[in-house]
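TASK: fixed-backbone design
INPUT:
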């Protein structure tokens, strides 16, 4: 890491706080924007093209000058520093294929499948390499990430988008400070020129238009950690305690057959789809009788954090078929059957 140390500017008392925000040209257009993804039966490709990947922008899209862009690493570190875009790109890079999922609206109860999901390849610098330069103090337990966007969301104003990560996750080798997606530079709506990428965790944690990473001894205070993106903890028997929207629970979606598809009897029906979660999915079961019986599907193992293909050929008798798929991860967590944002998908077909 010595070579990388020589290319960064270590900070001293002359550093002007928030000077990294001078790279912001404008927030345009302002306000909330969402681009919904195609329906699951249209997400046929293993790698999701930019045009088919959802977009969620909370307060507006930041227009950033890449020449003036800088990333500050500070807080509870021995050697705070700043790095510019050219220096970042000169560091050793890594490619990670990962599912990318939006949690859904934090303004409504999470009781239905959202499936704002895709599978993409990110390129960037492993965040742990940057932390090695900064040398975190032992009392640093969280990393706060700041974006250059600002404005209002859900009637709440914020001078910046700020999230946090536990230090253990931040030190994981898959967490990237990324500047490319699917081999192309990050565009404005995708959080370019640089964003944080946290594979296995919901997209709200992958701060766009990244400008600052600060190590702290506590969680960040701000609307996107205290008001938005918290959910009831299913392990709390009182039903009162909340937890941050961090890890993605096990999930599955059916790509084939399509909803409403009709088959002629007798026939074999090929069922296939995708499964994903923070932990590797180790089993997907499929039912064609509405849950009376389940059969284990063939499942590809996970190499990185990509979604996993499952396939199963079933013999389907005549009549209306209710097909569902249920994923279980390596820790034993399983999709709920109903009333949960990741409950099992249902596709109805007809065999005539």
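OUTPUT:
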């Amino acid at each position: 890491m010595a070579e990388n140390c020589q290319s960064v500017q270590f900070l001293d008392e002359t550093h002007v706080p928030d000077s990294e925000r001078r790279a912001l040209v404008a927030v345009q257009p302002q306000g909330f924007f969402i681009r919904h993804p195609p329906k699951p039966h249209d997400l046929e490709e293993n790698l999701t093209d930019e045009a088919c990947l959802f977009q969620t922008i909370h307060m507006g899209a930041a227009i950033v000058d890449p020449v003036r862009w800088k990333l500050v690493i500070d807080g509870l570190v021995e050697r705070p520093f700043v790095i510019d875009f050219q220096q970042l790109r000169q560091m050793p890079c890594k490619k990670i294929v990962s599912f990318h999922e939006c949690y859904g609206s934090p303004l409504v109860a999470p009781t239905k499948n959202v499936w704002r999901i895709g599978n993409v390849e990110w390129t960037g610098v492993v965040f742990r390499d940057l932390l090695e330069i900064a040398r975190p103090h032992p009392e640093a337990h969280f990393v706060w990430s700041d974006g250059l966007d600002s404005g209002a969301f859900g009637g709440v104003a914020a001078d910046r988008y700020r999230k946090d990560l536990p230090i253990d996750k931040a030190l994981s080798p898959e967490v990237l400070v990324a500047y490319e997606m699917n081999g192309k530079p990050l565009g404005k709506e995708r959080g370019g020129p640089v964003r944080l990428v946290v594979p296995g965790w919901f997209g709200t944690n992958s701060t766009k238009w990244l400008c600052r990473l600060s190590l702290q001894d506590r969680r960040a205070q701000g609307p996107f950690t205290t008001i938005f993106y918290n959910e009831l903890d299913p392990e709390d028997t009182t039903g009162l305690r909340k937890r941050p929207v961090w890890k993605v629970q096990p999930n599955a979606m059916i790509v084939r057959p399509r909803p409403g598809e009709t088959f002629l009897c007798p026939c074999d029906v090929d069922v296939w789809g995708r499964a994903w979660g923070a932990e590797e999915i180790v089993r997907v079961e499929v039912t064609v009788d509405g849950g009376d019986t389940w059969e284990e599907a063939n499942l590809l193992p996970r190499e990185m954090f990509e979604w996993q293909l499952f396939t199963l050929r079933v013999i389907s008798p005549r009549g209306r078929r209710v097909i569902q798929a249920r994923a279980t991860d390596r820790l034993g967590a399983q999709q709920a059957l109903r009333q949960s944002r990741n409950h099992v998908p249902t596709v109805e077909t007809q065999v005539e």
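COMMENT: The CA atoms of residues 102 and 203 lie 5 Å apart.
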